[in-house]
């Protein structure tokens, strides 16, 4: 497929989302990710808002019906109706429900889930669906949906800003790389180096991802051995968040994740008046957290934000796209905004008014950049879409338009792929990927 028209692209994106609807939710991909993922659901809702708002609300409801009593929104919600592979005894995804054992935990719902979280993009998405309501009838429906969702979004924020303030700085900590949504990003390498990569842990499991994807595009076995060890420790301590210790072999503050928490507070401040709540506490929390974010994660020496390893209290030197996401915040101080714009334009990311490719997930100039391996170089539409919002937020319409054009262009050339080659822009990963389709609709709308 080379260079389809924008009309054809719109239709392709609509069809992709329709095909990925399964039972009561949209799956990221029917082959690679056959269940419901948390931040995918937020991005998908942003796109569905333009073509099927009822489906967007249904998707968010299904996700939040699986919220735990402590407020955490699990990163995967499994579908009991479609749990096993056609081949008996095999799970359709690894790690599946038998690994997470969430139903043994009193705070977890009956429907099996994972015990981790993902970036909270849902308030932002819910506000978008409401804003895009085409007529008064759909706006009324949207207001009713917001009424149901608001207390749940508040509980999600409370979980992240209290239980997950494990380091005590005020910022939320990731306890697993999967929680960042950028699984094998080089940003976690230093913190992960302290976690043993015990390959024997993988012996009793089967990596289903390798049956449907190229090994050279996916995280390595050493990565997976670490992911499993970290998840097992957390699970075996009942997914409790009560202070640093051996339950968390990995503890990191991520600028992207924390920026999205702050953006969620700001979206809640918009939603609050619609549901008769007070917006002020949300604004105050957003202000406070923005100060802490700048204080803890901005490095004046590099001019951008970095991940902090909470155990050794050090910033990772890695430049990754997550380090530019604080641009999403309207009240980011001017000095940091200017600095991030300079960094975005530097050769590491290459943003300019004539940019032909969206920005890579990792520093283009890094010697270990891998243009095909997942979050170690490839281009992701969701991260670029967030940056696009940030550019518009900070009065950069020309750069925003250029980035939008580059995003639409890669999808027009290859289709709704999961991610795209760092230098050629060719589609890689799974070909019918929901958030690429959804965010393309939002770009075209
Ligand atoms: C683990 C579903 C998810 C995305 C993540 C992406 C990938 C899972 C995996 O797929 O992660 O959660 O199996 O690799 O990294 O961002 O939400 O699309």
Keywords:
single chain, 445 residues, mainly alpha, Glycosyltransferase, three-stranded antiparallel β-sheet, two-stranded antiparallel ribbon, 15 helices, 11 strands, 5% strand, globular, binds (2R)-2-(alpha-D-glucopyranosyloxy)-3-hydroxypropanoic acid
Could you characterize what this model shows?
The chain has 445 residues and is mostly helical. It has one domain (6-444): Alpha/alpha barrel (Glycosyltransferase), CATH 1.50.10. Helices cover 45% and strands 5% of the residues. It contains 15 helices and eleven strands. The chain has helices spanning 6-19, 38-51, 53-65, 97-100, 122-131, 136-163, 189-192, 209-212, 221-236, 255-274, 280-297, 334-345, 381-393, 397-414, 434-444; strands spanning 21-22, 25-26, 36-37, 76-77, 252-253, 298-299, 304-305, 308-309, 314-315, 419-420, 427-428. The strands form five sheets. The protein has a three-stranded antiparallel β-sheet with strand order 5-8-9. It has a two-stranded antiparallel ribbon with strand order 1-2. Strands 3-4 form a two-stranded antiparallel ribbon. A hairpin with a 6-residue loop joins strand 10 (419-420) and strand 11 (427-428). Helix 2 packs parallel to helix 15. It is globular and about 50 Å long. The two termini are 22 Å apart. (2R)-2-(alpha-D-glucopyranosyloxy)-3-hydroxypropanoic acid is lined by residues 28, 33, 37, 39-40, 75, 178, 181, 183, 209.
């Amino acid at each position: 497929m080379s260079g389809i028209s924008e009309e054809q692209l719109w239709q392709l994106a609509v069809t992709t989302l329709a095909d990925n609807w399964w039972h009561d939710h949209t799956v990221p991909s029917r082959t690679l990710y056959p269940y419901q993922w948390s931040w995918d659901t937020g991005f998908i809702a942003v796109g569905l808002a333009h073509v099927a708002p009822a489906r967007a609300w249904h998707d968010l409801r299904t996700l939040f019906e699986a919220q735990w009593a402590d407020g955490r929104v699990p990163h995967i919600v499994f579908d009991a109706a479609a749990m096993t592979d056609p081949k008996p005894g095999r799970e359709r995804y690894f790690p599946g429900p038998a690994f997470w054992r969430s139903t043994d935990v009193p705070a977890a719902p009956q429907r099996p889930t994972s015990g981790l979280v993902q970036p909270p993009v849902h308030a932002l998405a819910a506000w978008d669906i409401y804003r895009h309501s085409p007529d008064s009838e759909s706006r009324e429906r949207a207001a009713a949906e917001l009424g149901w969702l608001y207390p749940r979004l508040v509980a999600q924020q409370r979980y992240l800003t209290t239980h997950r303030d494990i380091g005590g700085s005020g910022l939320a900590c990731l306890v697993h790389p999967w929680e960042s949504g950028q699984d094998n990003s080089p940003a976690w390498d230093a913190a992960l180096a302290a976690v043993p990569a015990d390959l024997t842990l993988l012996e009793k499991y089967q990596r289903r991802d390798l049956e449907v994807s190229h090994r050279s595009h996916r995280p390595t076995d050493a990565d997976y051995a670490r992911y499993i060890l970290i998840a097992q420790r957390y699970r075996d301590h009942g997914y409790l968040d009560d202070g640093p210790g051996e339950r968390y072999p990995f503890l990191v503050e991520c600028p992207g994740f924390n920026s999205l928490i702050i953006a969620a507070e700001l979206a809640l401040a918009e939603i609050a008046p619609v549901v008769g709540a007070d917006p002020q506490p949300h604004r105050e929390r957003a202000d406070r957290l923005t100060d802490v974010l700048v204080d803890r994660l901005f490095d004046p020496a590099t001019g951008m934000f970095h991940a902090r390893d909470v155990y050794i209290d050090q910033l990772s030197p890695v430049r990754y796209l997550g380090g530019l996401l604080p641009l999403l915040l309207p009240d980011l101080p001017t000095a940091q905004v200017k600095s991030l714009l300079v960094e975005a334009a530097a050769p590491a990311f290459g943003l300019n008014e004539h940019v032909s490719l969206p920005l890579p997930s990792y520093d283009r100039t890094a010697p270990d950049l891998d243009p095909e391996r997942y979050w170690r170089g490839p281009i992701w539409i969701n991260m670029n879409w967030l940056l696009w919002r940030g550019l518009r937020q900070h009065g950069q319409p020309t750069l925003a338009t250029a980035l939008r054009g580059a995003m639409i262009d890669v999808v027009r050339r290859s289709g709704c792929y999961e991610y795209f080659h760092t230098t050629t822009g060719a589609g890689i990963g799974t070909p019918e990927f929901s958030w690429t389709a959804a965010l393309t609709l939002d770009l075209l709308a």
